[in-house]
Design brief:
The complex is a heterodimer of chains A (263) and B (412). With 263 residues, chain A is an alpha/beta fold. Chain A has twelve helices and nine strands. Chain A has a nine-stranded parallel beta sheet with strand order 5-4-3-2-1-9-8-7-6. The longest helix of chain B has 15 residues. A six-stranded mixed beta sheet of chain B has the order 3-4-14-9-10-13, sandwiched between helices. A four-stranded antiparallel beta sheet of chain B has the order 1-2-12-11. The chains are: A alpha/beta (263), B alpha/beta (412).
Chain lengths: 263, 412
Amino acid sequence: MTRIDAKFAALKAEGKKAFVAYVMAGDPDYETSLEIVKGLPGAGVDVIELGLPFTDPMADGPTIQLAGQRALEAGQTLQKTLDMAAEFRKGDDETPIVLMGYYNPIYNRGVPKFLEDAKAAGIDGLIVVDLPPEEDSELCIPATEAGMNFIRLATPTTDDKRLPKVLQNTSGFVYYVSITGITGAGEAQAGDVAPEVARIKSQTDLPVIVGFGIKTPDAAQNIAGVADGAVVGSAIVKLVEERKPVADILAYVKSLADGAHRA
Amino acid sequence: MANDLFNSFMTGPDENGRFGDFGGRFVSETLMPLILSLQEQYEKAKTDTDFWAEMDYLWKYYVGRPSPLYYAERLTEHLGGAKIYLKRDELNHTGAHKINNVLGQILLARRMGKTRIIAETGAGQHGVATATVCARFGLECVVYMGAHDVERQAPNVFRMRLLGAKVVPVTSGRGTLKDAMNDALRDWVTNVRDTFYCIGTVAGPHPYPAMVRDFQAIIGKEVRWQLEEQEGEGRLPDTLIAAIGGGSNAMGLFFPFLDDKSVRIIGVEAGGKGVNEKMEHCASLTGGRPGVLHGNRTYLLQDDDGQILEGHSISAGLDYPGIGPEHSWLHDTGRAEYVSITDKEALEAFQMCCTTEGIIPALEPSHALAHVMKIAPDLPRDHIIVMNMCGRGDKDIFTVAKHLGFEMETKD
């Protein structure tokens, strides 16, 4: 059982929805980013999605793109991102960390070495945007064998015929992408999302968490209300971009978490 | 010869879109269903005589195919060695080989009921070709172009606009071709239901590399019969040479000859200011290593952390940090050789071509020509080199003028 499985089991026992927060590792710099990450559990975050910066984030909107650029310019690397997770783990052995990014930095390190290092750093799961089920032998299967969750994105274009393939090797939770589009764009509609979540849940027992297009505490509440939880990324990253004090960022995160937890 | 054909180089990619370890389908889930549907449509079209009849008609009457295979007599004499033929794809409608592929993809898009076409472009040649064919079929066209390229390729930007396309300057990243491709992919993810992404080179997720190659293979197929027509039945070229950015004109020339073992195949990458640790070049095979970008695994220019680097080339059309996956495979298997040519060498070849043959070449094939100039003098007179003259140089005269220190003023 990974920390992710344990967390969702605990939430279920409490009858609570999950709040998942995304931040870009190393944005705007290593120290500030670490401070933000360390503060997330206290702000009510159940699962941390730690963004792995990449020069060419082709599924991300401008907010996350710029965050990645800021992090890279400040010297962030895959190694530093793992260091950051390890540093966080020294003070928190419960909150799951999911590393989210693109395949090339991982492939570049070598999958076996990456998995060993990521596991040692306390990473619990992976979301790799450019690895669909067709490429499962690359990382998904080795990661699962190494005891890590490989979390898959399901999208509005994932039809019933394809859904079993998407769910097949997924573990931890399913991340439902509420819109056809990039991160930070559009607005998730609970009315559209509800039947999609139901469709996915009819084929899996895994929790279904919804992300993309959730920007406010009310939206987090509405979306979490029709799923097992909600993810917010760009709206938080935007505050980092505006160089808001860490306390203000965490206060906003708390308002989002409270929203999701009200559902 | 026939019995070693079981080792064919022409059977790839496999059902997962792999050429050896290269290629694949590294895209987000949102795009996967569409990519699978495109593959299905393409497989159907490949054996559909109606589809190819339409292609042949348009190639002949709209594009002007076949393009001539021209014996460059003065160039041959000047270099004093191998006999040099130029495949004149710069004489196609829109001035480059790009339209060969665009026509095929647009016919497929129509079959799939897509009403909106998007494309990325570097130098603007693929953008112009896409805008052209979209105008021909009355389709909405949006072209993503790096803001930096929009500035240095102003005439092509205006051409696209005249043709009714919307040109979107891309400012994300550093505003070059790779960023234009990122933004095109972002558009596609957002508008996947009505939009077809017309990729301009033999890269991207499967089936693009194979599909674009198959559409461009008309180049090599023509060369085969055109050379026989001029040199006698059964005469094959001894050496094929083409420039490589993503590598579509090269794959088009090379592919039909991959199993003709006597044919030496040479791809020419853009060496920029020289292939060195400063990475001021675009020679992915010579100076990069395998990685995953834009839907496929291939050789890429990247740093120690797996971050993608910007290349440099005088030619905007070669200014891309990757290369088609089939080239990576041909490189690793040793079937094709890959070399690099610097900006300076390409400029010299450009000028030589103008004055000895009366052909103003694009800067992209000028790289190929520079390599021809290097090897031809040492080859025997009965050695036949076929080089792909894949584009004309009108778009490049401002760049060349600048490098030669020639002031070009435009007055109202």
